[in-house]
Amino acid sequence: MKPRTLLIALTLGLTAAAVCLAGDSKAEQALRGADDAWSKAAASKDLEKTIAYYSNDASVLPPNAPIATTKDAIKKLWGDLLASPGLVISWKATKVEIAKSGDLGFVNGTYEFTMNDASGKPATDKGKYVEVWEKQADGKWKCGTDIWNSDLAATPAPLAETK
C-alpha cells in the first residue's frame, strides 16, 4: 500500500472512531445529567418532577415492598417517601453505560437518605441502585426500571410468641 493511501485510510479510521466515541460520550453525559436532575427533583420533594423521569411502562422495585408497575402505584410510592418527616435524599451515578443500539442505557450508583424513625430521631440509610433507561421518540431519556437496596444489615424479624 502506498504511504499516501495508508495515511488516508488511517485518518478516516481514526475520524470514524472519534465520531463513535463522541456519540457514546454525549449519550452518557445526557443520561448522567438526567439522573442528576432526577436526584435534585427528589431532594426538592417535588413529586410531579420526580415521577416524570419514569417511562409510561416503568417498573419500580423498592426494598421491602411490592413492585410498582402503574403510574398510580409509582406516584403513591414516591408520594409516601417524599412526605416522610425529616426526609433528606440524594443519589449519585458511579457508572453509566449506553447500549450499542443507542436506545437503552443503565446507571448504577449510590444513594443516601435520612428520615425520622418512629421515635422521631433521624435514621440514615445508604445503599446502591440500578436504573435502566430508555431513549424516547423525542430523544429524551426515561427510566423504565428502577431498583435500589440498602447496604445496612437487615434487621431480624421478631420471633413469634408461642402459646
Quick gist of this model?
Helices cover 36% and strands 34% of the residues.
Salient structural properties:
163 residues, 34% strand, Nuclear Transport Factor 2, Chain: A, 3 helices, alpha+beta
Report on this structure.
This protein has 163 residues and is an alpha+beta fold. It has one domain: Nuclear Transport Factor 2, Chain: A. The protein is built from three helices and five strands; from the N terminus they run H-H-E-H-E-E-E-E. It has helices at 3-43, 47-51, 71-82, and strands at 54-61, 88-98, 104-116, 122-135, 141-150. A five-stranded mixed β-sheet has the order 1-5-4-3-2, with helices on one face. The longest helix has 41 residues, at 3-43.
How is this fold's topology laid out?
Blueprint: H1 3-43, H2 47-51, E1 54-61, H3 71-82, E2 88-98, E3 104-116, E4 122-135, E5 141-150
Parallel strand pairs: 1-5
Antiparallel strand pairs: 2-3, 3-4, 4-5
